[in-house]
Amino acid sequence: MENRKTTIHDIAARLNISASTVSRALNDYYRISKTTRDLIKKTAAEMNYKPNQLATNLRKGRGNMIGVIIPRIDRHFFSHAIAGMESVINPSDFNLMICQTNEDYMVEKRSLQALVNNRVEGIIISMAAGSTKTDHIEATLNEGIPLVMFDRVADHLDIDKVLNDNFAGAYDITTHLIRQGYRNIVHFSGPRHINVYRDRFEGYQKAMQDAGMEVTDSMVFEDILTRQKGEELAEQLLRSGKLPDAIFSSSDFSALGALLFFKSKGVAIPRQIGIAGFANEPFTELTTPGITTLEQYSEEIGKSTARLLIERIESGKKEVSKTMTFKPKLIIRASTEKK
Amino acid sequence: MENRKTTIHDIAARLNISASTVSRALNDYYRISKTTRDLIKKTAAEMNYKPNQLATNLRKGRGNMIGVIIPRIDRHFFSHAIAGMESVINPSDFNLMICQTNEDYMVEKRSLQALVNNRVEGIIISMAAGSTKTDHIEATLNEGIPLVMFDRVADHLDIDKVLNDNFAGAYDITTHLIRQGYRNIVHFSGPRHINVYRDRFEGYQKAMQDAGMEVTDSMVFEDILTRQKGEELAEQLLRSGKLPDAIFSSSDFSALGALLFFKSKGVAIPRQIGIAGFANEPFTELTTPGITTLEQYSEEIGKSTARLLIERIESGKKEVSKTMTFKPKLIIRASTEKK
DNA sequence: TTGTAGGCGTTATCAA
DNA sequence: TTGATAACGCCTACAA
To answer: What DSSP assignment string belongs to A292-319?
Structure first.
């Protein structure tokens, strides 16, 4: 329980040499005699010396921290994306500083501020649902900090992005439903100011149009992302008397809610109604019937995002910005096997 | 894309005052004229001034960062625990620095080192499976850094801890199995040098003994925590011809593996064999039959851990160390309804 | 190969 | 109420 930590000066004093020599030895500088270096290192260890990273960073004008901002850490997609980032970043001796916004714009803004103030080397961000403007992100960009967005991105910003091809995924799964013979397919969507849900909606819409079917407003339900909302909407649909014959949901959770509700009411899945989700949440495989969905490669997305950021940091961020897209993989299960 | 950031000196120069005045104004020091303070704040905003947290921390000798070390961030329990910590820590203007060990001792050691070097204000840790020694943790404690352990703790260290009452949970669920009429109950365990799995084993053992049944070595299987291991072991048990009539697994995942395997082979659950897990993973509710398990209150554990740490940090860590225990809640589902 | 001196951006102390 | 000065711990020209 010592209080004042040993510094390079303490070591220097003990050995009757200068602090700079100690610094050089500890950092394996090129021209320094092996004997003094070894002596210094040995003494440093004896004195339980711990380099003060804060001081180093201040002096060098750069840190060893990468900031990550996500809506919620307890979501399967995000926690796995972060695991992917970790695996890339850990070997590189950066550290992750993780902030969670709870989908709130103000929290996101404050977190960005904190990261800037802590002089992080780069920032990875996936936007909060509450962030309808991007002034805070632009302000951060103006600081000249390398910044990469993933999953929930701002289309109009010209920066590196990594995301799912939500359009293609939605197109594929809708087409699958159509091929199975479903005709009256409705869509559970999220807030459509978020690229993710907008693109899924558009993929659905395009697939319907390509199959000669019109999508009307009454077929699309906004903000149906949770299990509970899925249940409620399913109940509403059933009560209304005009049950669709299939649902493509932007969320596995609301798909689950609907599935459980229909099951409990004796509506036959997939015969009377087909159900498809998005994200390949672990549970989708385990329900009866299993839920057709799309695999998102969260870990890969995390890895690529981290790699992109590290490139930016190391290359001085000059080049033109890149967007990487991962095409979700259609996972067909019993919930849509009409045929 | 400016390069050099504005400092308080720049502001001072612009206003022909001293840097210390600027500093005081920005920090709302008590004795300073309102007019200069307002002027300074206005100018700071104009010049897009961002306080350099690194410098502040160095000068003040303390930082605004809390380090968290966990085995894996993509596990339900841990990501939810972290969400809980975030909710407590965010309002307090600390920031979380999260490290994931992948269950590896060396990574854990290096992470601790990094946190110490970054002069974090406190550390929260849940040990890696690979950490059979605790020298690195003791070394960190010797630095005088407040440290709280959660879930995977080192029993012999006299520090604050927050954990599940694994013994009680295991005792409860085993007793439940016994009351249901199961007699030949085997146990899927994890590495028993980890308190978590040791305590679950002991709870199981005690419940069996209290019911007059002996637990022999052949009834306990070590290192069966994953779905795949659960499947493999289930297969082995079935082939051996002496199928137990119930399984209490330390992990929902291996319970799931066993359940799916038995189902696929036509072994009736819960009639021929009862299955119980631990952790109340989301999927346990959705299998057919649903899996009896124990709810862990991960978020609460995260919150309490964070609160305990903040107390330590703020109170100068003098008091005697506390251990908080959360009793897991038995969730009874169809997989054990023999009666 | 080593030492000296200065500064990274803040804040605390002392004096004015 | 404000200013000058030093120091937090480290690194790096430059000089020796």
So the answer is: BEEE--HHHHHHHHHHHHHHHHHHTT-S
